[in-house]
Amino acid sequence: MSIAEDNAPLLAVRDLAVVFGRAANPTPAVRGVSFEMHRHEVVALVGESGSGKSTTGLALLGLLTPSTAAVKGSINLTRKDGTTVEIARLPERLLRQVRGNDVAMVFQEPMSSLNPIYTIGAQIAEALRVHRKMSAKQARAESLRLLTWLEIPSPDKCLTYYPHQLSGGMRQRVMIAIALSGRPALLIADEPTTSLDVTMQAQIVDHLKALQRETGMAILFVTHDLGLVREIASRVLVMYAGQIVEAGSVEQVFKQPRMPYTQALMRSRPRLGGDYQGGVKRRIEAIPGTVPNLAALPRGCGFHPRCPHFLADVCDAAEPPLEATEPGWWVRCVRWRELAARSA
Amino acid sequence: MTAQPLLKIEKLRKFYDIRHSVFSRVAGQVQAVNDVSFEIASREVLGLAGESGSGKTTIGRAVLRLVEPTSGSVRFEGQEVTAFNRTELRTFRRKAQIVFQDPYASMDPTMTVGGVISEPLRVQKLVPRSQIPERVEKLLADVSLPSHFARRRPSELSGGQRQRVVIARALALEPRFIVADEPVSSLDVSIQAQVINLLEDLKARLGLAMLFISHDLAVMEYLSDRIAVVYLGRLMEIGPSREIVTAPKHPYTEALISAVPDPLNGRKRIILKGDVPRPISPPSGCVFRTRCPYVVPVCCEQVPAPRETSPGHWTACHRDDVL
Predict the structure, then answer these.
(1) Which of B68, B75, B139, B262 has minimal CB crowding within 10 Å?
(2) What share of chain A is helix, strand, coil (3-state, %, to 5)?
(3) Direct distance between the N- and C-terminal alpha carbons of chain B, in angstroms, rounded to an integer
(4) Closest approach of chain A CAs to the CA of B132, in angstroms?
(5) How is A48-63 classified by DSSP, letter by letter?
(6) Amino acid A2: pLDDT
């Protein structure tokens, strides 16, 4: 994908491919993913389990090691000092400088990301000392500032707590505080609110939005929740079986999805308080079958075995390319023109 | 509601004692469920909504006496479940079953799917052994799984398939009532819809009554006839699903509904500040008052009694005139 913009992108991913497993039994988790992100932008990466969305996130931080996964393609990141680095080929020593300072990550399960035997204060301070070379005193002041900003009640007490003494929502705020400690230009948030209740989710999403407004930090928000995408992102990348199958502005894609998978996904969720016809709720449409096994992908389009618009010898013949349908909107479906004309 | 509800719960309480060690005396109590009352009619689906720690799972288990209620009454077909002896309880469990959230944890991995589904039949000795394979096949068909799945092991199945097997097991004894505790929460979006539609078909075809426990309000509205909202162990509001979702009368329900993101329209959200208070020391008066945007002094003093704000719609709020 190439997006015409006058300034250089913050992140440019080209033909990213990640293969897990040995050569005899390879599992391609990410297959030829390309996209760009600009400063101040919130992009959502949407998909179900096995779509490759989380693996893409891990690759962007250089967290996939050669012993576990073969990473191909390029990931160019513009650092805060204006230089560009290639994440996929950066030695670990340099990656450590990039992680936290330029890109940071918030994971789904805060309990497994925090160290249970250190206090919250010690863990935030560690990040601040490593990334911003702060003294203990400075680190404490900055930790308090971060926790206050994230509206943690009595932040000074929170610093003395251990992770198990906090609720899920508070732990996730602490994770965000740690991620922010290096003032990264890009935050990768991998399902940061999935384990939380909706009211807590609303608080966290609000914080992330405010953060993006105030600091101009770009956010790659990985999620399976289409409602959340609408809430936080301006652009959306829909992934299925390791590939981007549709990409565009949230407005366009959600109003008139062009890839049958996106369409099916939109129709498979009930909408709260919506979709009544004559007092009866519209029946949701399930997508038949299951997500394909990545080690034995279907021929042609990865979605064809579950697609209501499947055409033999067309959809299962060759892998469809990601086609530009109009500026800023890409679809991976050989039949999109025909289907769009039919629904128009 | 019919004159004789299938299930009637009155002033249900479940308190857990807190001890600092096994031998020390009781240091306090966790009020997991406090004075909850509701009814479920035959063939009715009641959704039980609430956040983690609200007591919704405890209510579901107390109804089936999988945990013993501290006090209160649970009547099923007019009989007092809390007074059942072992034999009566066994008969009761034929009619009332449960489906848990995690289909991975709720099946014995060493058994075949056929063994899992037929276990209740074998335990209750309702069907002669020779007829069991036939019943298993029918149950698999009920949940839209092919009959050869009977020979598979749970590890060979996907999450959605496992949840179908768990549902088939719950249906084996032809119950009248099922407690479904977050039955689709652990499934992928595209698979969730399959199981949701299956539950809806079963409800229509078998005339099941259900207590549908979930934190997912969109799924709940879709499946339930009525919705009950619980917060910190107490019932906040109960009424017809569509009314609860489109015209909530309780400030907590209003905030909860507003927090659900919608893919097509932005909602005007009410952001609740802070966390749910700890159930060891719930706030005095209305338990929601510490986070309520409409709080007035009386909320600290008196526990609000539920009032019928419109036909069949009950709200426990001192300020039910505001919304």
Answers:
(1) B68
(2) 35, 25, 40
(3) 25
(4) 28
(5) -TTSSHHHHHHHHTT-
(6) 40
- Contact at 8 Å (CB) between B207 and B42? yes
Q: Which of B243, B256, B260, B271 to mutate to test the interface with A (most CBs of A within 10 A)?
A: B260
pLDDT at A241 over 60: yes
- Could you tell me which residues come within 8 angstroms of residue A275 by beta carbon, excluding any fewer than 6 positions away? A281, A282
Q: What are residue B71's DSSP bridge partners?
A: B13
Q: Which residue of A has its CA nearest to B158?
A: A290
Task: For residue A224, give the chain B residue with the closest CA.
Answer: B189
CB atoms within 10 A of CB A160: 11
Q: Is A111 on the interface with B (CB under 8 A)?
A: no
Structure tokens at A303: 């979605």
Q: What is the DSSP string of B132-153?
A: HHHHHHHHHHHTT--GGGGGS-
| B-chain residue closest to A269, CA distance | B193
Whether ipTM tops 0.95, in short, is no
What are the structure tokens assigned to B80, written together?
């007092």
Sorted by sequence, the CB contacts under 8 Å of residue A276 that are 6+ apart come out as: A282, B242
CB A296 within 8 A of CB A241: no
Contacts 24+ apart (CB under 8 A), B265-273: B265/A274, B266/A230, B266/A231, B269/A202, B269/A206, B271/A199, B271/A202, B271/A203, B271/A206, B272/A199, B272/A202, B272/A203, B273/A151, B273/A203
- Show the tokens assigned to A135: 């003294």
What average pLDDT does the structure give for chain B?
A: 91
Cβ–Cβ gap B262/A198 under 8 Å: no
B215 — contact with chain A (CB < 8 Å)? yes
Indicate whether B252 pLDDT > 90. yes
Annotate B219-288 with DSSP letters as a single string: HHHHH-SEEEEEETTEEEEEEEHHHHHHS--SHHHHHHHHTS--SSS-----PPPS-PPPTTSPPSSSTT
CB contact (8 A) between residue A254 and residue B191: no
Q: Residue A199 is nearest to which of B51, B160, B246, comparing CB atoms?
A: B51
Cβ-proximal residues to B134 (8 Å cutoff; 6+ apart), any chain:
none
A281 touches chain B (CB under 8 A): yes
3-state secondary structure of B52: coil
Give the separation between CA A100 and CA A128, rounded to whole angstroms. 10
| Cross-chain residue pair B242–A265, CB shorter than 8 Å | no
User: Tokens 């009410």 identify what position?
Assistant: B270
pLDDT in tens, A83-125: 999 998 899 999 999 999 999 999 887 778 899 999 999 999 9
Q: Are A227 and B246 inside 8 Å of each other by CB?
A: no
Interface probe, candidates B190, B199, B214, B232, chain A, greatest A C-beta count within 10 A: B190
Question: Which of A197, A201, A291 is the closest to B188 by Cβ?
Answer: A291
Which residue on chain A is closest to B272 by alpha carbon? A199
Tell whether the model's pLDDT for residue B250 goes beyond 70: yes
